[in-house]
Amino acid sequence: MADTTDPSATFGVRALLSGTLDLDAGVITHRDGAHVRLTRLELKMLRYLDARAGQIIPAAQLHADVWGHASRVISRAVDNTASRLRKKIERPGESPRHLIRIPNEGFVFRPLSSTPAAAPAPMPPATLPPRDAFFGRRDALIALDEALASAAVVTVSGPGGIGKTRLIREAPLPGAIWVDAAGIDDGEGLDAGLASALAVPEAQLDRALQKRAGALIVIDNVEHLAAPLRARLLRWRRSAPSQRWLLTSRAVLGLADERLVRLGPLAPEDAVSLLIDRAQRRRAGWGSRPRDITPIQQIVSVLEGWPLAIELAAARATLFTPRALLDQLQADLDPDRITARLQGAPPRQSSLGQTLRWSWSLLSAPAQRALSQLAIFEGGLSINAALAVLPADGLSILEELIDQSMVTPQDSEGDTPRFSMLEAIRRFALRVGDPEELAETRRVAARHFSDTFGGESNFVKVTDRGDAEAEHRIQLMADFENIRLASLTLLRAGSFEASLWLGRIMLEWCNRRRAFAQLDRIAGQLLALCPPDCAASQWMPVRILRADALAYSPVPHTCFTALAEIIAESDQSGDLFSSVCAGILLLRRHRDSWDPVRVRAVADATMAAAERYAASITPPGTPPPPPGHYTYGDLVRQRTQRALGAWEVRYTDTESQGRERIEGALAYARYFNTTLQEAICLMDLSVAATTRKDVVEAARLARRAATLADSFGVFWPNAAILEANALREAGRPEDAWSVLAPLQPRCERDHVQELPELLLTLSAIAWDRGHEADAALLLHRCGEELDRSWQPRVRARWHLERARQAHTRDAAQREQARFFSLIPDDAPLPAAFVCALEPTQILPFRERTSTDRSS
């Protein structure tokens, strides 16, 4: 222990989370390169505590031994000095980790590690490449510090170019002995390299290690030397058991006491900072325009936060603006095209392709073949899918790929293990794989997904709400892109039934999650590859789902034509069930229509088809079911009744009969345990309650519907809109705002179909709250959305709200006239449609006259 009172004594360097502490010079060097000098008393106190590191030293003892105060002197010198020291040595905003005050006991000093003053000097700086600015990796640095404090051998692992060497160069490793093993080919080269770093002859290596007991030895880039390094480490550690070793490798060495620190891609914000910093070294001001931030964010997303890829892309900043660079990367993400000459980088890092070829060469032949097979999966894969395409020893091969940092375990919401690989690795593995073998692997994977997710039994798992099916739905969502590719593979192979069952399940899932654009894209691909006379059982359901999704396309009117064509074709072929399904959807699309003649005609035709279908599936002489028990034929009838009731409850004259239909359908939905049908019925009953102005019941039913939808994992803002409207009518605008406002960001992000109605309702609530500027802005946004969507009911309400918020009577009357122009002369006016929208500037709608219309 050094004498803290001797001015000629030496103390060494201590590692801190914030940097390094030089107890000889009295200087703290932070990770960003900043230097902080300690005062005489601060340094004296730290030297005293460091000599007794880990011990609790009472404040009175510090008063006596450091300040020289008598025991009877009362002073806050120790507390004040400790407070200043914490600001210098601890990381901002975090609890003290090094200088800790124990209440009623004293102070304790705990550095991460210490290097004796007599430790050997580190490798001369000239042998290391210059340090660039460092971004992110805060958690990795902490994990590295903790690993070095608790383990004798620490390996930093990760794919090539992920930043392993840069991380350990940023970590506080005072006195470390550095060896770069990139140019070493065998075990003898390891001996020679380490002896050279220690500045001793190779024959004296073991003795030199014994003399430097406790020192940290860093060996960089050892992935190609795993076997000889394991043998050398056993020998070296026998010579110097207290020695500490820090290694960087793309592969795990497999030592019994090896502690791993795995590196992955950079966080998005750190990746953006790295790209801008490296690019601006090539071209001043690159990416500094406001319009550049979006393409820069997209660039790091395309490159998946891979530091080497980002640095290679940044080297092209002299040629491309951010937008042009993004276009280049999106057009071709070939790893060999992402290339540049980086100063100080080895040849294997001149391009992503070179880096990946180096990693590929380290794999065994079975692992290379397996990596190409796993590369057919997009967006990750489950362990079940991996084992389906790999040979019998698939688990051991998968472990090798993980140890070699080519495949990464993936965090998953479900219980089934999942894995992923960087997109550049995946594309490289596909390119070097055998095309015929990859085609067979795709067929095997397609059969696996068909067995796992296809067929009627799996369709029930997707549509039911039980907890037992939750894991199945989680995996369906995680493997959605792989299932889509599997369905196309089966279709091209002529397996129409299996392919369309997968397609039907995907389309139902899209429909329930309101992803109509995705639904249209998937259905279009399937229908384009199917022959016109396809006899698969799911051919017509796929067509019906796509036709219904056209209601949310840029040409929504085509939905009516497509559904009518399907009904005519089904009637002609005798496919009553398809006719009923298409009729129910057509009736639903006419729900907001003011043409009761057309609605009744569609309803009568659909109910007649439903009756014929129910009779066709019930054998003659079958006794009626007991009270409270229902058949599938009853369910078909009730679905049709509910579709008609959803239109009727919107009008005062037909509200009661529509409500009766919905209540009957609700009983069936509960009996068959169909969550979404129950939620839909509750929303329709909420509309009925609004029509008869029972706003308390309307709010309760809407809230219950939203809860059911949430329990099934479905986002339905229309339930919240119903609840907010009911609360607003009840004179509770603040409560209405708190229900609806939190949904606006998600609706705008996902551009859901209810966005115009949500903005309109928020505008009305804001007006009621007295926030006129916010109300006007929301109303304007609603108008912009209505210009992009076909929603006549919402557009009519939009004109009414504009009239209510108008500042002059003339403006209000103009908007009122536009409202009336959208409604046929003899159409019934839905009560729920205009509820609470009768301001004093507008004449009561029930008393409107022909004069009002002409104005």
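Above is the first protein from milestone M3; the second protein from the same milestone is given next.
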Amino acid sequence: MPGMAGQRPGGKRQAKCGKRKGTVLFLLVPLLLLGVALGAGLVLDGMFPLPLSDRPLSTVVLDRNNIPLRAFADHRGVWRFPARPDEVSPLYLDALIAYEDQWFYSHPGINPFALVRAAFQNLGAGRVVSGGSTLTMQVARILDTMPKTDDRKAKPAGSGSLARKIRQMLRALQLEYHLTKDEILGLYLTHAPFGANIEGVRAAAYTWLGKDAMELTRAEAALLAVLPQAPSRFRPDRHPERATAARDKVLDRLGRFGIWTGEQIARAKEEPVIAFRFPSPMTAPLASRRLRSGYPHDSIISSTLDYELQAHVASLLNTYAASLPPKQSGAILVVDHTSMAVQAYVGSAGFNSRARQGHVDMVWALRSPGSALKPFIYGLALDQGLIHSHSLLLDVPRFGKTYDPGNFTGGFEGPVTAVRALQESLNLPAVQVLDAYGPVRFHDRLRHGGARLRFSGRPNLAMALGAVGTDLESLVGLYAAIARNGLAARPRLRPSEPLSERFLMSPGAAYITRNMLSRPLPGREGVARLSGGLAVAWKTGTSYGFRDAWALGIKGDFIVGVWIGRPDGSPSPGQYGAVTAVPLMAQVLEGLDYRDRATDDMPSSVTRETICWPSGLAASQMDRRTTGACVRRHHAWILDHQVPPTLNGESGLAAPLVRTVWVNRDGRRATPGCGGIRKIKISLWPWQAEPFIPAGWRRVNIMPKDSDNCPGLSPVAAPGIRIVSLADNTILSRQPGDTGGAALPLKALGGQGRRHWFLNRVPLGTLHGPEPLSMPMPGPGIYHLAVSDESGNADQISFRVISPAP
């Protein structure tokens, strides 16, 4: 054909190739544009990262059941607690997603249908009635908004503009690219505005409803779902009517969508909106402050505290403090020793009290423990084999010693059992045992047991009376060893903290010490067995100058520690452990739940044995032919079947008090070379006890006289001493009208060195030479007068004072 004459061969193939190239270009251009868009998106993503790290969170401390104990606002005063979807009520999630974004789990961050619908609604209304924003876009807006405390100022300039909307959409895509749906939802639950300085649903639930976000009703869930739309307008404490109308609007939508039934909707609408702002919780202010300081990067801090017990114990202390002198404070620590979980931590009497310095945490303050460390002196001495529960100890002056303290009462008890010395908190026996054990060793063992101790200089015997700094928490950790078979442990404030145990004493020593401490509390008949039928092992302490009063008790699974005093360390005359701290400890013990009882089985290393005084040995070991072998018997707790003898009061070490002497045919002391024909055994009392024991038990009366045929025998005692100013069993008459002007002379013959006089075991004075000593005529009654010299020789008499009939 003519039209075909000029056509080159292969033209059809070229046309087909052209069509294929056009098709490829048609496909490549969108892909290239998509690649450019993706590349631009990645560049923008790198240039404008998600602002997630610069939004600080508040801190809330929770009890063991997730009840808030105290909350701390961020540095701008905003309350904002982190929340995940699994930490809020499912009812709230139903209401939020149905009302705000029912396609949340389906769209990629932007819902085009919602945007188109919003555009038509706004055009039809002539104003903005819907933004078409998804929850992801709302999170984007929140993250790009400068934080303010007023929601009306929270919107950035131009937030309604198209540019702002596009920015939010891009941010929404960015969020969906980096985070999961639950993570995005968690950002909303954490940062959504709820009025005033409240952000996040958990802070809103605590503030407006007084409860955790997991415990919401349907009405409350609907209210919190709508509140972020207009936080100031719908504030339930200021505008309850508006809040009710907005809540009902959410409920109606949930009913239309069939998410909740009509009956559920109707019941929810009947629930009134609470027009009240609940204060920030302050149930455990000092414990929470300590936890926040220890875990500064945690916004939710779970604790071992029990909300109800914490509130109860704090109330007990605040009420009790009202009866104390001004400026007095207190602290209480309650620990479950099976896990060492702290269940109540009250660090002061009134956190907001300036007079009592309530901001000072006295659980952690270093103070003198007074006598509170004495149980560990006896427990460690038991382990060392120095004593048993009824060892003969000496509550007598420490003649010739550099450290010679007195007792709280001012007098002395003479020979006492270890259990009595511990229960009555006598000072001299504790010093005697500590002297035998070693103060440096004692200090090191307590430190190894986890105690926080502060000591000036080298540890010495004054530690027995509290000359060392420690704190209530350390004391409770040490007393745990008495309750936990010898294992001391640090109290735990967080469930995640590992149990830190340290060996302090053997299970047998802990068991005996616990039994030595178990007795009725003063002034409370039968209080040793309170509710639950469990005995109470307890000890008090009073520091020098009445600065600190302590009481620590073990009952069942619990250890209760109480401190009373002034935080500034000034004295509180008349305030001491037994009268000040023990009554409060008893109140706390009575309020504890003892359903889970600790086992109290006696270890196999502990046995009971009848022991004899003065030797301290088992009655079965004593030779009945020994003079004075068993003048007193006690049923004692014995550890490891070992019966240690009585401590020698002179050296502080155990030394036999049974002497073997030779006597002649007349029963006088003699050597075999001058007539001695047989040996006899004599059980002696420690010489320091001589002024406090009956005359028939004293050495001068039970040791045989020396034979005249044996000169140069080693003396068994120094020259005797005898009271000559009064005869034994004298009756004195106090004249009518005598106001104490008459004086009784005190005179003794014999003895060596200084003479120490005692009336009814209370020191009267010391003679350093031949000068006379006298005392005022006492009132009517029976009296015991004793004198002792530097070598332990003593004499004693009894006399009676009467008032003649008028």
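Note on the second protein: The CA atoms of residues 282 and 754 lie 63 Å apart.
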